[in-house]
User: Which sequence fits this backbone?
């Protein structure tokens, strides 16, 4: 992986991480202070808590990707330690899917006249779980490559 690519990826990861932390801080302030500017039929407190947890899941994935990029740069991505970070990404994606299903459940009572929205939202949750499965397959490929590299090291 080229140095420019690594630096660009790290810049993007840092911007997203700082942005999510700032949004979390503002949302926590709104939740704790009770100065909610909106007062509608949706349970906004529940949605805000779900969004806060979703940002935590995204932050965990960002940190794991950061560590994996560092391992790629050092040439140690085929070590056993890399699997911990890939598992962290998979767990974050699964958590995001479960949180999306929670958003779907909170939103569902407001969609009684148009249940198609709830079905579409549930479909998005299934698609998010599909992304977790894709990353799981990539993890299996990493395991195979690590095994092949270990065998090659023995031969050499």
Assistant:
């Amino acid at each position: 992986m080229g140095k420019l690519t690594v630096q660009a990826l790290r810049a993007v990861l840092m911007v997203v991480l700082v942005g999510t932390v700032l949004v979390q801080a503002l949302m926590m302030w709104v939740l704790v202070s009770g100065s909610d500017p909106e007062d509608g039929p949706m349970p906004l407190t529940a949605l805000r808590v779900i969004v806060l947890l979703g940002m935590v899941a995204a932050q965990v994935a960002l940190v794991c990707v950061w560590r994996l990029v560092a391992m790629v740069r050092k040439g140690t991505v085929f070590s056993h330690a890399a699997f911990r970070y890939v598992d962290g990404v998979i767990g974050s994606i699964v958590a995001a899917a479960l949180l999306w299903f929670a958003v779907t459940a909170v939103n569902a009572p407001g969609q009684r006249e148009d249940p198609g929205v709830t079905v579409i939202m549930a479909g998005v949750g299934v698609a998010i779980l599909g992304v977790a499965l894709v990353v799981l397959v990539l993890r299996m490929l990493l395991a195979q490559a690590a095994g092949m590299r270990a065998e090659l090291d023995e031969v050499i």
